[in-house]
Structures are given as C-alpha cells and as structure tokens.
Design a protein that fits this description.
By secondary structure, this protein is of the alpha+beta class. About 45% of the residues lie in helices and about 20% in strands. The chain has helices at about 20-35, 50-65, 85-100, and strands at about 1-10, 35-40, 45, 70-80. It has a four-stranded antiparallel β-sheet. α1 runs antiparallel to α2. It is globular and about 50 Å long.
Length: about 100
C-alpha cells in the first residue's frame, strides 16, 4: 500500500509560523524506518504493508507531538494488494504515457 500523509503541529513558537523543525522530526522517523518513501512540499508518501506503514505514521505523529500538544494529520491511502514498487512505478507509467502521446482512453 501507499500512504501519503502530512503531519504538522497545530501551534508554532516561530515568529513566522514555520513548523519545519517538527516536520523534520517526522521525516526523520520515516527515513529511519527503511520503508520506500518520497517527500515533497505538501506530503510524504511511504510504501509497505498496512501495519508497518501505519506504525511509521503513528511514530511520526508522536514526533511532531513533542513540539505541540495539538497535531494535524492528513492521510490518503492506495490499497492494492499484490503490487509493490508502486511509489515509482505509478509515476513511470504516467511519464511513459505523456512521452508516447497516448492519452486517449
């Protein structure tokens, strides 16, 4: 399964409202997990089995909670048993279709 999630503190002590230190703590948990992952400006996506993915999300959320008593968590999951390496394969299929110009149903 793929799980895209965003976790951030509900409060910030920074004068500009930045939450980057708390987010970095969450990303450290993800990267230390050893699961395939990708982080962009809005979400982190991780790939693995149900229990291991949600354990990482839980631990990342707890890492953010060290910075604020209130935490926001947004999740989106793609549950497709029997498929692996979809973190890159899904994007590769889209890029191939764009390159080939085969955008018709």
């Amino acid at each position: 399964m793929l799980v895209a999630f965003s976790v951030a503190p509900g409060t910030s002590d920074s004068s500009d409202g930045s939450v980057h230190l708390a987010v970095a703590a969450a990303i450290r948990v993800v990267r230390d997990s050893g699961l395939p992952n990708h982080t962009d400006a809005m979400f982190t996506t991780i790939e693995g089995e149900w229990d291991e993915v949600f354990d990482v999300v839980r631990r990342a959320t707890l890492a953010v909670q060290e910075f604020s008593p209130r935490v926001s968590l947004v999740l989106k999951a793609d549950i497709r048993p029997g498929y692996t390496d979809q973190l890159t394969a899904k994007v590769a299929r889209v890029e191939e279709a764009l390159a080939a110009g085969t955008l018709e149903g």
